């Protein structure tokens, strides 16, 4: 798609587009930057405090609630850009990878603080746990998107008008990364 195609679809004048963007690549990279910032800003305060079990649970809950609110449409905006651009545009792929690294770093930093305070096992690797968590989140968002339901089948069957939806696919990431690596506040493995 060229800038002329974008101009035709948006109704923007050629001078407007070329005033802000040198070429198509410049526009694509602006979209990537805005998308990454929007995803991270939406999670702002939660990402700033990923240093306790309660706050990690709140973060996962917010991801699930966001998908419920979107009726499971769209998946991860950053992941969607990766699917569209990573194989055809090396610069876009690098920019998307850098955005995901920013997101992952927030989690890694919180996990590092948890390990320092004795909330993770001493041999836990916050970087590896953060990577595994991000992979689980991206996979969960993809499943949510293609199945159009943020909750797995067993949880759908348990729902009722009086019972709020239980955490689903996305929350399994928390279970997997806790198993054998995290300690609960009492010092005992939870899973």
Question: How does this structure look, described?
Answer:
By secondary structure, this protein is mostly helical. The chain has a single domain (22-178), classed as Tetracycline Repressor, domain 2, CATH 1.10.357.10. It is built from 10 helices and no strands. It has helices at 3-10, 14-20, 24-42, 44-48, 53-69, 77-85, 90-116, 126-147, 153-158, 172-178. The longest helix is centred in the middle third of the chain and has 27 residues, at 90-116. The termini are far apart.
Strand % is under 5%
Helix content: 55-70%
Unreliable stretches covering 5 or more consecutive residues = 153-167, 187-191
CATH architecture title: Orthogonal Bundle
Shape descriptor:
elongated
The biggest sheet amounts to: none
Average pLDDT level: 79
**CATH topology label:** Tetracycline Repressor, domain 2
Quick one: CATH superfamily? Tetracycline Repressor, domain 2
Structural class: mainly alpha
> H/E order of the elements?
HHHHHHHHHH
Radius of gyration: 19 Å
List keywords for this structure.
191 residues; mainly alpha; Tetracycline Repressor, domain 2; 66% helix
The gist of it:
By secondary structure, the protein is mainly alpha-helical. The chain has helices at residues 3-10, 14-20, 24-42, 44-48, 53-69, 77-85, 90-116, 126-147, 153-158, 172-178.
Could you outline the blueprint of secondary structure elements for this entry?
Layout lengths: L2 H8 L3 H7 L3 H19 L1 H5 L4 H17 L7 H9 L4 H27 L9 H22 L5 H6 L13 H7 L13
Helix pairs in contact: 3-7, 6-7, 7-8, 8-10
């Amino acid at each position: 798609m060229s800038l002329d195609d974008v101009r035709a679809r948006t109704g923007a004048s050629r001078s407007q587009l070329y005033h802000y963007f040198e070429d198509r690549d410049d526009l694509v990279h602006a979209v990537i930057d805005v998308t990454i910032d929007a995803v991270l800003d939406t999670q702002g305060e939660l990402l700033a405090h990923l240093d306790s079990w309660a706050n990690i649970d709140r973060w996962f809950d917010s991801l699930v609630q966001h998908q419920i609110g979107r009726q499971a449409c769209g998946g991860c905006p950053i992941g969607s850009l990766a699917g569209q651009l990573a194989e055809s545009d090396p610069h876009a792929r690098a920019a998307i990878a850098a955005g995901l690294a920013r997101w992952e770093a927030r989690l890694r930093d919180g996990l590092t603080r948890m390990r320092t305070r004795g909330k993770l096992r001493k041999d836990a690797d916050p970087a590896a746990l953060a990577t595994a968590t991000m992979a689980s989140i991206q996979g969960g968002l993809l499943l949510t998107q293609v199945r159009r339901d943020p909750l797995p089948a067993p949880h759908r069957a348990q729902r009722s008008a009086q019972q709020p939806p239980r955490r689903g696919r996305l929350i399994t990431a928390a279970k997997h990364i806790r198993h054998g690596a995290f300690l609960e506040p009492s010092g005992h493995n939870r899973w």
